[in-house]
Amino acid sequence: MTGDWTWDETLFAGTAAHYARGRLPYAPGLAEALTEALGLDGTGRLLDVGCGPGTLALGLAHLFAEVVGVDPDDGMIAEARRAGVGERRVTWVRARAEELPPGLGAFTVATFGQSFHWMDRDLVAATVRRLLRPGGAVVHISDLKAEPRPTEGLPHPPVPYTAIAGLVRQYLGPVRRAGRGLLPQGTPAGESAVLARAGFTGPRRLVVPGGRPLERSADDVVAGVFSLSSSTPHLFGPDRDAFETDLRRLLGPGPFSERQPSTEAVIWRTETGR
Predict the structure, then answer these.
(1) I need a labelling partner for 72 at 20 to 30 A (CA). Which of 16, 65, 101, 178 fits?
(2) In angstroms, what CA-CA distances link 128 with 19, 23, 57, 205?
(3) What is the spatial distance between Cα 99 and Cα 159, in angstroms, rounded to a whole number?
(4) Contact (Cβ atoms closer than 8 angstroms) between residue 222 and residue 251
(5) pLDDT by residue (tens digit) across 166-178?
(6) Which pLDDT value is given to residue 14?
(7) Listing from the earlier edge strand, what are the strands of the sheet with 66-71?
């Protein structure tokens, strides 16, 4: 994917159980913004690629007649199935995006919720384009990067992210971990060039504002740390319990506050769309 790093099945091993509690939610109004931008009306089919525990697939299911969530991690698919009990519109498939099984059918929209950068992007972009109907859309959804999130006026102390990152480095070393490998340069950029090469047109960029204060318990913050690819529980090996003890000592009893990030949705079409 980048440099000498290649994907392996341990990238998010053990993180699925921590996702729902640890990850910050997408900004309210995301579904409404996509409905307006894409003309969604409860018909059509959604392919959520790298679906994780089903956050996007389940949050957008009411906008489609059918949803397929795909992820390579057993734990993520198990969590998605648990979260989606009773939601008959959604089917879960364990597979890498590079190895999508035949017979999935055609889709009107494909989403990547902060997942595209982990993939062989040229291969996946070309594959997904073939699965989209004419006028279909790829939507990359993520927290708005580099957005200032001021801590002034919050009801509780902010989450001490700098100190947490320092503690992780003490245990795992100074270079970012990712599965069995290292990512000294981080994940790749240049998404626009990848999608343009695959024949998509665009992009159209939407920003759904966040900013509301969120209350976070110490348990929430610990779950957030263990939900990250760079600090998955298995990376700590026999020091996992010691790390959590030190992390909880650093945090104290809580609670904490932080502002919800805004959500960015970047839309690319298989042909010129509105």
Answers:
(1) 65
(2) 26, 27, 16, 20
(3) 39
(4) yes
(5) 999 999 999 999 9
(6) 93
(7) 90-94, 66-71, 45-49, 107-113, 132-143, 263-269, 201-208
* Total count of residues recorded for the chain: 274
Q: How far apart are CA 153 and CA 30, in angstroms?
A: 25
Phi first, then psi: what are they for 163, rounded to 5°? -65, -35
Query: CA-to-CA distance for 65 and 46, rounded, in angstroms?
Result: 8
pLDDT of residue 190: 87
Question: How many C-alpha atoms does 31 have within 13 Å on its Cβ side?
Answer: 15
Tell whether the model's pLDDT for residue 2 goes beyond 80. no
Q: What is the pLDDT of residues 133-158, one digit of tens each?
A: 999 999 999 999 888 888 899 999 99
Give the bridge partners for 126, in sequence order.
Answer: none
